[in-house]
Amino acid sequence: MTFGFAPPPQVSPPTSADSAARLGRMLEPAEWASAGIPLLRNPREVVAGLHDRHRPVPSTAIVAVLDMQERVAASASFTEFTGAPDGWEFRNALLAHLRQVIPHDLRLRAPVRTAVLLYCREGEPLWTETDGAWMWGLRDACTLHGLRCGAYITLTPDRWQVLGEGRGGRRPKPSTTAEPVTAARRTAAGAGTATGRMEARRTTTAHPDARLRAAQLPTSPNRSTARHTGGGAPEAHRHTAAR
Questions:
Q1: Cβ atoms within 10 A of the Cβ of 69, count?
Q2: Is residue 151 classed as helix, strand or coil in its secondary structure?
Q3: What's the pTM?
Q4: Does the CA dihedral 73-164-95-121 come out positive or negative?
Q5: Are 114 and 148 in contact (CB under 8 A)?
Q6: Contact 156, 125 (CB under 8 A)
């Protein structure tokens, strides 16, 4: 059995200007291979962690942001309903979910965090037009959010596969239920996307230094704050402007 990319004869000839534009918003295997996508140090661990967080079923996309140690800083999952795959719509959906779960890094000179995409679907783990549209969308969304474009992974009934590489495995497999494995994780329901054709499933965030950052934030001198006294309720501390 051969894994990885298949030759791209699946690309159907355009029948109209719209379909021609849509086909232009996908990446074929050669384009993805020449994009300099960084390799995951431990793709099995990344896949297992995202599967455990989101329990994907077919047509579920999981976008995750990894820090420099390849730990998941934030992730979101949603279901894709579009008929003809369009990288522009996929880009908008990915960008909308990234904005919900993690701030952008556009002010940095170079990206320090990496976004990866795991897409659960039926069929073989070989390249399809839908995969090409997701690749285009992921690359564009990363550029607009200040992230480095990372791996694109398919999860099919037979196996998971990092497209463009020879690495994959037979476990985990797509879930038969969309219920999360545990209710203890910090989750928030998505509020919709820019395209209106995607259904949000789960978003998870992991910011271990959130409390520390919040404690270090300066307080506006004109904003009322609470000062704790020796007993009971906090006492309001009011600032008045100098006349």
A1: 7
A2: strand
A3: 0.70
A4: negative
A5: yes
A6: yes
Residue 153 is inside which H or E element, if any?
A: strand 148-155
What per-residue string of b and e applies to 78-114 under the rule 16 or more CB within 10 Å gives b?
Answer: bbbeeeebbbbbbbbbbbbbbebbbeebeeeeebebb
Give the distance from CA 229 to its chain's centroid. 45
Tell me the torsion sign for CA atoms 47, 143, 86, 27: negative
- Residue-wise pLDDT for 4-13, tens only, equals 555 554 555 5
pLDDT in tens, 185-231: 333 333 333 333 445 555 555 444 443 343 444 444 444 334 433 44
- SS3 per-residue string spanning 19-67: HHHHHHCCCCHHHHHCCCCCCCCCHHHHHHHHHHHHCCCCCEEEEEEEC
Q: In whole angstroms, what is the distance from residue 208 CA to residue 82 CA?
A: 36
141 within 8 A of 107, measured Cβ to Cβ: no
CB-based contacts of 56: which residues, under 8 Å, 6+ apart?
Answer: 50, 62, 77, 118, 120, 155, 174, 175
pLDDT per residue as tens digits for the range 74-106? 999 999 776 789 999 999 999 999 999 999 999
Neighbours of 68 (CB within 10 A): 9
Amino acid at 143: T
